[in-house]
Amino acid sequence: MDIVTIILKKQKFRIISAFTVNLILLGIVFMWNKGLSDLINSITRGLSPSTPLIIHLSIILFFYVLFSGFSSFVSNWSCEQINYEIRRLYVDNVTSKGAEELSRLSAGGESSKLLNEVSSVCGFISGNLFFILESAIKFTGTFCWFLILNPLFAIATNLPVFLILIYVSFTSRILKNYSIKCNEEKENINALTETIITLFPIINLYKVQKLIGQRFVASLENWESVSVMAERKKSVLMSLSAFMTCIPLVLTVWLGGIFIIRGKLTFGELYIFINLSGNVSGVLMNMPAFIGQLRVFAGNLRRIK
User: Fold this and answer.
1) pTM above 0.85, yes or no
2) d(CA 287, CA 40)
3) Among the ranges 73-77, 110-114, 281-285, which has the highest mean pLDDT value?
4) What does the pLDDT average to over 190-195?
5) CA 282 vs CA 36, 82, 121, 122, 222: distances in Å
6) How far is it, in rounded angstroms, from Cα 112 to Cα 286?
7) Burial level of 107, CB count in 10 A (0-12/13-18/19+)?
8) Which of 151, 163, 223, 259 has an alpha carbon 20 to 30 Å from 105's alpha carbon atom?
């Protein structure tokens, strides 16, 4: 069993708590949007907003702010605890090895692993663990609510989501390859740095500073070249992803007008679809880069078992 799996089992209470809080928060968002929908429908009918409705919206807003802060606190606290445990267990795992096993370990290799793989795993968890959880809850919950509100309109406006999913799967493979290359070049730099520090007296003795310096500069240039190329690819692919995620919103506005004219949708319901469309299509906008990072994360995880 790998280190992260052990830690996630230990931290399951915090993860379940974060899941519950995000679920409640999504419910509050739905209540807020439903209240605003009723308010818009009242105004379009020429009626003034009722006092109970205003009070109702004010109470919902208060609880939204409360649970938003609590959700952020639980997520950040859990990530810090998980990252601390990952580093502690990795060090415990190395120091608990026998003398024979330790003799076969490379100090530079283990240092590089701690700097690269372990730091990468911790960074991914901090930035993405609860993003995955929150995005899954938003995507599933919002799409189900859309189906309850108006099944035909929900399906018609979100058909492009399936095309976006195919695009996400394709581009994530490309970004994964570039991420792996960047990590490999970074590992080479760290290994070379460790070698220079360890063998500095010998390097100084044989006067090979220039040769080592040239090799180090070459490694830096390789890393820079791969990193720049990766960022260029990422910017192009992410721009296309952002463009594609706008298609469902355009369809929502266009078909929304048609549905309202035919009496199959109210202005308030159209507001809900427009306001919450980001929970469905918007979630997929950053997915190519995220899935690429996820695949690199899985590879790093295998290396620190």
Assistant:
1) no
2) 33
3) 73-77
4) 72
5) 21, 28, 25, 26, 35
6) 29
7) exposed
8) 223
